[in-house]
Design goal:
The protein is mainly α and 184 residues long. The chain has a single domain, classed as Ferritin, core subunit, four-helix bundle (Ferritin). The protein is built from five helices and no strands.
């Protein structure tokens, strides 16, 4: 089903001058959103590189599996952000093709505390990224009949999940029971 975006149905009833002003405003808003999406994709890239590197340094296979789950989500997020920016750049109505990303596998041995510090910082980045995605969903979420808002909010939820998973791994690396765990 092809939904006509609200912007297009509004433009059909406007004068040519109003349409021109709205088009210029929409173009500037689209460029701003593209820059935000590109910046967030770049930070996702940094997170992916960190997680891919650290997963090979973890000795515990359970903790490695947790990090792998996060890597898989981050790879999907990166691709969705890239596709959203492509939709805005090309003004297509069709979702862009998926391009796979090859992992970076530079392995430098680190201590568990060094890994914990890096993952703790990454957990903070995930929380901040989730807040930014939610803000973006609120301000720009109406695009493509609300699809952008839905995707941004779902990625924010995943980032919140990633923060919790990273905090779990950090607590295990430091030998501390995670918050809320009363059994230890």
């Amino acid at each position: 089903m092809n939904a006509v975006p609200a912007d297009e149905s509004r433009r059909a009833t406007e004068t040519p001058a109003a349409q021109s002003d709205a088009s210029a405003s929409d173009a500037a808003a689209s460029e701003r959103l593209i820059a935000i999406l590109d910046a967030h994709a770049a930070s996702e890239n940094d997170a992916i590189d960190l997680y891919q590197r650290l997963q090979y340094e973890l000795v515990d296979p359970v903790l490695t599996a947790v990090i792998r789950l996060i890597v898989d989500d981050e790879l999907r997020h990166h691709e969705v952000l890239r596709q959203m920016a492509t939709l805005l750049r090309t003004k297509q109505l069709e979702w862009p093709a998926i391009v796979s990303r090859q992992p970076e596998t530079q392995m430098l041995p680190s201590s568990p505390e060094s890994i914990a510090r890096q993952l703790d910082a990454a957990a903070n980045d995930e929380r901040e990224g989730a807040e930014k995605l939610r803000d973006l969903a609120r301000t720009e979420g109406g695009r493509y009949a609300g699809l952008f808002g839905l995707l941004l909010e779902l990625m924010a939820m995943d980032s919140g999940k990633h923060e919790q998973m990273l905090r779990y791994v950090v607590s295990q690396l430091r030998g501390v029971a995670p918050q809320g765990d009363r059994s230890a």
